[in-house]
Amino acid sequence: MKKQNLTLGVIIGNRDFFPDKLVSEARADILKLFAESGISAVMLAESDSKLGGVETYQDAKKCADLFKKHKDQIAGVLVVLPNFGDERGVADTLHLADLKVPVLIQGYPDELNKLNVANRRDSWCGKISVCNNLYQYGIKYSLTAKHVVHPGDASFLADLEQFIGVCRVVKGLKNVRIGAIGARPTAFNTVRYSEKILQKNGISVVTCDLSEILGKANKLGPSDQRVKEHLEKIHNYASTGKTPSEALVQMAKLDVVLNDFMIENQLDANAIQCWTSLQQNYGCNVCTSSSMFSEGMIPSACEVDVTGTLSMYALQLASGSPSALVDWNNNYADDDEKCVLFHCGNWAKSFLPDIEISNAPILGTTVGVENTYGALDGRTPASPLTFGRISTDDTRGIMKAYIGDGYLTNDELNTFGNRAVAKIPDLQGLMKYVCKNGFEHHVVMNASHTSAVLGEAFENYLGWEVYHHQG
Questions:
Q1: Confidence category of residue 422, pLDDT binned at 50, 70, 90
Q2: In 84-216, beta strands by DSSP E
Q3: How far apart are CA 397 and CA 460, in angstroms?
Q4: 222 — phi, psi (to 5°)?
Q5: Is CATH 3.20.20.70 correct for 177-469?
Q6: Which of 55, 226, 264, 356 has its CA 20 to 30 A from that of 32?
């Protein structure tokens, strides 16, 4: 399990007629595991209750008060059942604390040679009782792959890593702020969305007219110190290929102003108008700046695809690595489980080992290739793939999403722009779902297998409608 930078609340359940030593053993197990994994724990001290366990209503109040003091830090709660536990104590703690964070329920397994009164746990049964009470209280919770599992078991390590991903997604999406820079291009009805539905789900959109950005950029000159700094940043980021120096300066000026806008408004992601106002009114593509934002873990999408960049942010939270906005673009010969992913292109350079700043030939046919420098060229090699898309379904007033896993391959692909070949089980069935349910032509890719994290976060904790493509 990789090192985490996260804080979890911990509730150790106890029931008085089971051996108290099991509580102490569980405490030691969890603290050791957290120390190895870089997780901070908020839990009762051994002196706060009987060995720091939660059993009575008084214990629950103490634990809840402790959690409330650390509400801003706690991203999730781990419920540990070294024995049957007191289901009311666990439920009361979570109810009183009212953290509204993900909860993972773990129960210890019994050993066949230790089913005597001095050693038995009965956590198998106790876990059912705890879940029953949480269900009654309306508290959402997650389960381990095995009904009971020791914290040192490899299966539980996988459970915990997935749970931490769920915590990151839920916490990150509760108050995310997205910059919508410019108007949606007229030709892209597909990226329409509802600000009101997003706001209802804690997602804020901060708008800005593209003319304000371009006006500020045009006031900057090549001798401006900040322009020089951003120009150096661009040179250090990617090979400039045959891109003219004046185009690189244009890109640097734009990057200065975009960064200012993001900082001033404390934004987590952005979606920028590109096609075709930027080229016609300013003379370059924004792709390089978007790529640098995304590589720096600030997702950036084109065509003012706000829910597209929200999807990028969600996949980034799940995996801890950058995401890219792509088109479901082409079939791959006659292989029904493969397709071409493409953009012209603004993918984070994590996806592009051969990254080069170039131009956009397709867009150049209408606005002039000389006005499209800043687009990136590069091929994404084989890797794990998680794909996903979040949308507002405005006619139904809901948030919806689809997610799944597959692979990116090294199959031959002779074209330009940002490109990849994806292999997805039952791809044809997935495309039917996308089309029948009115999803956009844009999807998000991430070099991971984290669709299970996203599904649990979106559906269980955020209450969105989710299709998890299994193939």
A1: very high
A2: 103-107, 142-143, 177-181, 204-208
A3: 18
A4: -65, -20
A5: no
A6: 55
